[in-house]
UniProtKB/TrEMBL annotation, chain A:
<dbReference type="GO" id="GO:0005524">
    <property type="term" value="F:ATP binding"/>
</dbReference>
<keyword id="KW-0962">Peroxisome biogenesis</keyword>
<dbReference type="InterPro" id="IPR050113">
    <property type="entry name" value="Ub_conjugating_enzyme"/>
</dbReference>
<dbReference type="GO" id="GO:0061631">
    <property type="term" value="F:ubiquitin conjugating enzyme activity"/>
</dbReference>
<dbReference type="InterPro" id="IPR016135">
    <property type="entry name" value="UBQ-conjugating_enzyme/RWD"/>
</dbReference>
<feature type="domain" description="UBC core">
    <location>
        <begin position="3"/>
        <end position="153"/>
    </location>
</feature>
<feature type="active site" description="Glycyl thioester intermediate">
    <location>
        <position position="90"/>
    </location>
</feature>
<comment type="similarity">
    <text>Belongs to the ubiquitin-conjugating enzyme family.</text>
</comment>
<keyword id="KW-0833">Ubl conjugation pathway</keyword>
UniProtKB/TrEMBL annotation, chain B:
<comment type="function">
    <text>Might act as an E3 ubiquitin-protein ligase, or as part of E3 complex, which accepts ubiquitin from specific E2 ubiquitin-conjugating enzymes and then transfers it to substrates.</text>
</comment>
<dbReference type="InterPro" id="IPR031127">
    <property type="entry name" value="E3_UB_ligase_RBR"/>
</dbReference>
<dbReference type="InterPro" id="IPR045840">
    <property type="entry name" value="Ariadne"/>
</dbReference>
<dbReference type="InterPro" id="IPR001876">
    <property type="entry name" value="Znf_RanBP2"/>
</dbReference>
<dbReference type="GO" id="GO:0016567">
    <property type="term" value="P:protein ubiquitination"/>
</dbReference>
<keyword id="KW-0833">Ubl conjugation pathway</keyword>
<protein>
    <recommendedName>
        <fullName>RBR-type E3 ubiquitin transferase</fullName>
        <ecNumber>2.3.2.31</ecNumber>
    </recommendedName>
</protein>
<feature type="region of interest" description="Disordered">
    <location>
        <begin position="1"/>
        <end position="58"/>
    </location>
</feature>
<comment type="pathway">
    <text>Protein modification; protein ubiquitination.</text>
</comment>
Length: 157, 590
């Protein structure tokens, strides 16, 4: 408990300092609970998520950083490795490939990379995975772009 | 008769009088014993005897390993690789584990491309990062600054404090054997964490766990070794491929098949055994059984087996609900209104409307396929339990009786080996016989000649075994309870040793035939068909092997179609057309 709190506090200070360094990620800690974090990440360019801003929720276990944080999308996203309803993410570093050297910041970077490079072979969203596996990249992109517009962009007017 | 004798001759059995087979052992003519004199003499010639067992042990193509043997071999392999490749023992252990503990594979891979191997297993030859003059370093996990002495690194040089190392390695060890391939925490690094780091950084409890995983890996990841599957046994077996025989015998006395690790099942092949075991546990078969023999209690829904003729069912406690088997209605509703307690008009009426037909037909069909299976299963299972009993008897014999017998009969224990030998033979034969029932179940129904040949051999072997078992169990009794030496003891010796030898021959015969896929059937077919007809194979249920509830393979199982059964007017039971009295209540058909 003490170790995880100390480590999260280090990350907190680092985030404050680094804010300007990575303009694509905006991490913030819950005011009353250092084990709850949220992040706003920008959809990577040249992907159907470009122009969207996606919100992630972090729940950090007491064994952190020996155990990985739990992360899910709060913003709806059409992506093979993200559960369409729950926002759960299928990413190896959040499971068996976790290393205590990762930080919440680097997890965000890994998620941005996953958005740009989906893994259709381990889908949590089968519709999305099937489009990619059948080679229908255009179909996948237009669906993903539609949901980006609907859920991840400020409403006009 | 001639050809039958041929068969015996071919297997070095003295031609035996047919009378002997049909007669009970006790009534066997004295002449019988003299037939075996030669055999018996051989048997007592100690030199000859030990040579025989020695030669069968020579063929052994496996070694049973105790924990100390395993550690020794593992150490030796590590040392060998370490010497040949000029690397540390820790590195050698990492390499061996990666190549499933095959020394030759490690050597081949290393000398064909050392760089690639180093990269694959994470053995760096120089650090990735270095801090030559730093007195303090930042730990890559807790991000705190620590004095240099608190920092440890793998070969890569990535700095982590000893507290974080302990957490990192401890978590991995408690996650399972994956800790054997642990790498540096830096995601981009991949440097291997060896046992030296483990021993330096974690609690003694975790060290012990790690070393057990390493030992287990030596057996489990190595293609030539397996753990003995007997519950509680901690020995392993090293097997050298080559010979056809896959049965291995552990020091704990459990025998198993190297291929499939099921209990030893020679002469039946692994595929048949797997099918049979699956069948025995298959839910579908279970469902058939329940379908045919039980109905759910209308109150508590547990399946209730119908084991008596009566239609009045009482559910097992605590439910104890009483109901009618035919209509599954409450028994209290029966009586005058339904046409008497032992009739159920409700069922009869509903059946005429066709309500019960489908369910009832399925029940009957399930029953027929089930009967065939039950026939083989009962015999398989009773030989199994018979073998367990014989094993216990053998142990009792070795631990208690032999010594006592030696005293009362004034015989040196070495002269009583024939008793142990007989029991060992019984145990082995029960095992073989058991598996022949699985074999029989899968023998195609249409291969009549093979089936007859098989049943002939199985019948011969089984009756030989019954005589041997009987003799070893019952006839020995009198000597165990005797106060002093008996004159008959030498006769007993001759008889038991003779039966042991004969039975061994019968079973070797059976095993050989099954392993050849019964291909000798053509040369023996004619002889067998003659004998089998006179020998009631199903009747083997008389013997110990079939001492179950009795044969379920009844001839009168009726397949219900609309016009080949009649309903008893008294109790409504559906009887086969050929029955003239009701099978349920014995009333005459009207
Ligand atoms: Zn640390
Ligand atoms: Zn490293
Ligand atoms: Zn064993
Ligand atoms: Zn097998
Ligand atoms: Zn009940
Ligand atoms: Zn009824
Ligand atoms: Zn009746």
């Amino acid at each position: 408990m003490q170790a995880s709190r100390a480590r999260l506090f280090k990350e907190y200070k680092e985030v404050q300092r680094e804010k300007a360094v990575d303009p694509d990620i905006q991490l913030s800690c819950d005011d009353s609970n250092i084990f709850k974090w949220t992040a706003l990440i920008k959809g990577p360019s040249e992907t159907p998520f470009e122009g969207g801003v996606f919100q992630l929720a972090f729940s950090v276990p007491e064994q952190y950083p020996l155990q990985p944080p739990q992360v899910r999308f709060l913003t709806k996203i059409f992506h093979p490795n993200v559960h369409f309803k729950t926002g759960e993410i299928c990413l190896d570093i959040l499971k068996n490939a976790w290393s205590p050297a990762w930080t919440l910041q680097s997890v965000c970077r890994a998620i941005i990379a996953l958005m740009a490079h989906p893994e259709p072979d381990s889908p949590l969203n089968c519709d999305s995975g099937n489009l990619l596996r059948s080679g229908d990249v255009r179909g996948y992109q237009s669906m993903a772009r539609m949901y980006t517009k609907l859920a991840a962009m400020p409403k006009k007017g | 008769m001639d050809s039958e004798e041929d068969m015996h001759d071919a297997n070095d059995i003295e031609s035996l009088d047919d009378d002997f087979y049909s007669g009970e052992t006790e009534d066997a003519p004295m002449g019988f014993y003299s037939d075996y004199d030669d055999d018996a003499d051989d048997y007592f010639d100690d030199a000859d005897y030990s040579e025989r067992t020695e030669s069968s042990r020579m063929e052994q193509n496996y070694t049973v390993l105790k924990e100390s043997d395993i550690r020794q071999r593992q150490e030796d392999d590590i040392s060998r690789v370490s010497a040949v490749l000029s690397i540390s023992r820790v590195a050698s252990s990492i390499l061996l584990r990666h190549y499933n503990w095959s020394v030759s594979k490690v050597n081949d891979a290393w000398f064909s491309n050392e760089d690639r191997v180093r990269k694959a297993v994470g053995l760096l030859d120089k650090p990735v990062v270095q801090f030559p003059n730093a007195s303090e370093l930042i730990c890559g996990i807790c991000f705190e600054t620590h004095p240099r002495s608190w920092i440890e690194s793998a070969a890569c040089g990535h700095p982590y404090c000893i507290t974080c190392w302990a957490g990192y390695i401890g978590t991995s060890i408690n996650d399972g054997p994956g800790c054997l391939t642990l790498r540096c925490p830096d995601p981009a690094c991949g440097a291997a964490i060896g046992q030296d780091m483990i021993n330096l950084l974690v609690s003694s409890e975790d060290k012990e766990k790690y070393s057990r995983y390493l030992l287990r890996s030596y057996i489990e990841d190595n293609k030539k070794t397996k753990w003995c599957p007997a519950p509680g046994c901690e020995y392993a077996v090293n097997f050298d491929a080559g010979s056809g025989n896959c049965d291995v015998s552990c020091l704990c006395s459990y025998s198993f098949c190297w291929n499939c690790t099921e209990e030893a099942h020679r002469p039946v092949d692994c595929v048949t055994v797997a099918k049979w075991i699956l069948k025995n546990s298959a839910e579908s078969e279970n469902m058939n059984w329940i379908l045919a023999n039980s109905k759910p209690c209308p109150k508590c829904k547990r399946p209730i087996e119908k084991n008596q003729g009566c239609m009045h069912m009482t559910c097992t406690p605590p439910c104890k609900f009483e109901f009618c088997w035919l209509c599954v209605g409450a028994w209290s509703d029966h009586g005058e209104r339904t046409g008497g307690f032992y009739a159920c008009n409700r069922y009869e009426a509903a059946k005429q409307e066709g309500v019960y037909d489908e369910a009832e037909k399925r029940r009957e069909m399930a029953k027929n396929s089930l009967e065939r299976y039950t026939h083989y299963y009962e015999r398989w299972a009773s030989n199994q339990s018979s073998r367990q009993k014989a094993l216990a008897d053998l142990q009792q014999m070795q631990n208690v009786h032999i010594e006592k017998l030696s005293d009362t009969q004034c015989q040196p224990e070495s002269q009583l080996k024939f008793i142990t030998e007989a029991w060992l033979q019984i145990v082995e034969c029960r095992r073989v016989l058991k598996w022949t029932y699985a074999y029989g179940y899968y023998l195609p129904e249409h291969e009549h000649a093979k089936k007859q040949f098989f049943e002939y051999l199985q019948g011969e072997a089984e009756s030989g075994l019954e005589r041997l078992h009987q003799c070893a169990e019952k006839e020995l009794q009198q000597f165990l309870t005797a106060d002093g030496p008996s004159k008959e003891f030498n006769d007993f010796r001759t008889k038991l040793a003779g039966l042991t030898s004969v039975t061994r021959n019968y079973f070797e015969n059976l095993v050989r035939a099954l392993e050849n896929g019964l291909s000798d059937v053509d040369s023996h077919g004619a002889a067998c068909s003659k004998t089998t007809s006179s020998k009631n194979v199903g009747g083997s249920s008389k013997g110990r092997g079939g001492r179950g509830k009795g044969a379920t393979l009844t001839s009168g199982s009726c397949r219900i179609t609309d016009d080949n059964y009649w309903s008893c007017e008294h109790c409504t039971y559906a009887n086969a057309k050929s029955d003239t009295t009701c099978q349920m209540c014995q009333q005459q058909r009207r």
